[in-house]
Design a protein that fits this description.
Layout lengths: L3 H21 L3 H24 L5 H27 L5 H23 L8 E3 L3 H15 L9 H19 L3 E3 L1 H8 L3 H17 L3 H23 L1
Antiparallel strand pairs: 1-2
């Protein structure tokens, strides 16, 4: 148990690296799921570290460095390669801004006194922003090889800009402890419902929309739930 959290963090890094490779090889579905798997792993390593009381400065720094790659670089590369076939300076600049905001968000988290982060984070977590972009790709993954319309390209830029702004904002978002408190005894029931919903969406071939919607629900409603927990 002593090193399990760090092992999971390294596995998250492996998922991010795999996503980059899949993006370069144009296996966009695998690249997207690799990022989402990294999202899940990122949540698990923190909880394991807390329960086993093995949190350390090394573990926190390692986690942040991996998050930059998994939720900053990997989604940016995936989105750019998938949606833009030619060089688009506007997309490059916006995605670089997204990466800068990801790094700033993680740097601010590292220096924030942990006593102030009981049930929430300041700014949208990079895990969620990376998950939103990965699930956005899942919605359109069947259009591999097709040149996207300007409307889709513009929509992607808008989504990226919104995520970048929210990451460096002072808006408060629930952390895992906050989610546990918000749902209380209903948490297991909610998790079971989410699993059933995801399973059904796989059979209905709507997994992209479902996954994107789940991330969007957290993004929109989480700040309101934080206020109710005060």
């Amino acid at each position: 148990m002593k090193y399990l959290a760090n092992i999971l963090t390294i596995f998250s890094l492996a998922c991010a690296f795999a996503s980059l490779i899949f993006s370069l090889e144009e296996h966009y579905t695998f690249a997207s799921w690799a990022i989402i798997l990294s999202v899940i792993t990122d949540g698990l390593d923190g909880q394991i570290a807390k329960r086993s009381r093995t949190t350390s400065d090394f573990g926190r720094e390692l986690d942040s460095l991996v998050d930059v790659i998994a939720f900053g670089i990997a989604p940016s590369i995936l989105g750019y390669i998938f949606i833009y076939r030619d060089f688009y300076i506007s997309a490059v600049l916006v995605l670089f801004l997204y990466l800068v905001c990801s790094v700033m968000r993680l740097a601010r988290y590292n220096i924030t006194p942990k006593g102030k982060l009981v049930n929430y984070f300041y700014g949208l977590p990079t895990t969620i922003s990376g998950g939103v972009l990965a699930s956005f790709i899942l919605i359109y993954r069947r259009k591999q090889g097709i040149v996207f319309s300007h409307s889709i390209q513009f929509l992607f830029i808008i989504v990226v800009l919104i995520l970048a702004f929210l990451m460096i904002s002072r808006t408060r978002y629930l952390n895992i402890d906050g989610i546990k408190q918000a749902f209380g005894k209903r948490l297991k029931l909610v998790l079971a419902g989410v699993i059933i919903l995801l399973t059904l969406s796989v059979f209905l071939r709507k997994i992209g929309i479902t996954t994107f919607s789940l991330f969007a629900i957290y993004l929109v409603f989480s700040p309101f739930v934080v206020r109710k927990l005060e």
